[in-house]
Amino acid sequence: MKPHKMKINHAGRCLLRFVFALFALLYTATGMAQQRKAIFPGELWPDDKGNHIQAHGGGITKVKDTYYWYGEERRQGLDSNYRYVSCYSSKDLMNWKFRGDVFKMTDPDSLGKKWVLERPKVYHNLKTGKYIMYMHIDGQVKGEVGNYKYARVGVAIGNSPTGPYRFIRTFRPLGQVSRDIGQFIDDDGSAYLIFEDRPVKGFHIAKLSEDYLDVEKDICIIKAPLEGGAVVKYNGLYYAIGSALTSWNPNPNKYATAKSLEGPWSEFEDIAPPETNTYGSQSTFMLKVVGTKSTAVIFVADKWKPRTQWDSRYLWMPLEIGDGKLKLPEPKPWRINVKTGETVLFK
């Protein structure tokens, strides 16, 4: 007997094509977001739901074998009465799961509609078990001209990396003006806040109190008019990165080195060819990944789009670092093995 052939009319064929196309689209939207095999600097970076990651001006905190990425939530449609901090988690630094907006707050001090919450960073205090979030809070101050006159840090606390975080207060660390902030944990576990001080034309590296809820001691002031400060320790040497004061516009980011946090610090040099303006990005963090075979230091930066902030991208690249030299390679797709610390750049 010949096999029976099922006849399908034109409408049926169209319906089947539509079903297969829809299945392929859904598979691509979910599968690609969950199974990324590389990091693509400057491109859309989908989370586990297929949405572009919203973690701008952020920082990374590792807890056991999981990395948590915190940043400014900039998606469209947010309630303008609040400012939000988002959180994502990953075990491989390439695929990220959205863990929600773990912190939101209202205007803390009648700062007006243009008040900002920027550059959130989270510290895990191993002694207390708490998670401490620092952020730059700014806005208008009555009697003063300009939108960035408040110049404080905000502090919030949580019981887990994914919060929720409870707002505690805002203050000026050590009584000083504070704009862009960064974080650094030294090899001995000591925690530091990096904060820009516009009046002194530099940025502070300051030690946090034992519970991380206050700034205890000024370690040094790096006298360079830079923001977006980030510090990493590599092979016994400290490296500091900063960005020039050009607002949203990218510029040549620079680095300096020192044998101790107290300094003295070397002269600042470009991390990339100056004509590239750091490949259109601005520093926010340096992530050190210590593996079984190698140690990678990742330049974590933002590619800002001020008019469409929800579409701002990220530039993550492994740095060429060592012997007092630091270089940001030309951005290319790359991957990392977080267990071995090895990175591979694709042509």
How would you portray this structure in words?
The protein is mainly beta and 347 residues long. Helices cover 8% and strands 44% of the residues. The protein has 2 helices and 23 strands. It has helices at residues 10-34, 277-280, and strands at 56-63, 66-72, 82-90, 97-106, 116-124, 131-138, 152-158, 166-171, 181-185, 191-197, 202-208, 215-222, 226-234, 237-244, 254-258, 269-270, 282-290, 295-303, 313-318, 320-322, 325-327, 334-337, 342-345. The strands form 7 sheets. It has a 4-stranded antiparallel beta sheet with strand order 1-2-3-4, with no helix packed on it. A 4-stranded antiparallel beta sheet has the order 5-6-7-8, with no helix packed on it. Strands 9-10-11-12 form a 4-stranded antiparallel beta sheet, with no helix packed on it. A hairpin with a 6-residue loop joins strand 5 and strand 6. It is globular. The model is unreliable at 1-8 and 10-32 (pLDDT under 50).
Summarize the structure.
The protein is mainly beta and 347 residues long.
Average pLDDT score: 92
Beta-sheet strand percentage? Answer: 35-45%
Task: Figure out the total of helices.
Answer: 2
Rg over CA atoms: 22 Å
Overall shape:
globular
Which regions contain 5 or more consecutive residues with pLDDT less than 50? 1-8, 10-32
- For the record, give the distance between the C-alpha atoms at the N and C termini, rounded to a whole number: 56 Å
- Reading the helices and strands in chain order gives HEEEEEEEEEEEEEEEEHEEEEEEE
Instruction: Provide the structure class.
Output: mainly beta
Helix content: under 10%
The total count of strands amounts to 23
Q: Give me the side-by-side strand order of the main sheet.
A: 1-2-3-4
Characterize the largest beta sheet: strand count, sense, and whether it forms a barrel. Answer: 4 strands, antiparallel
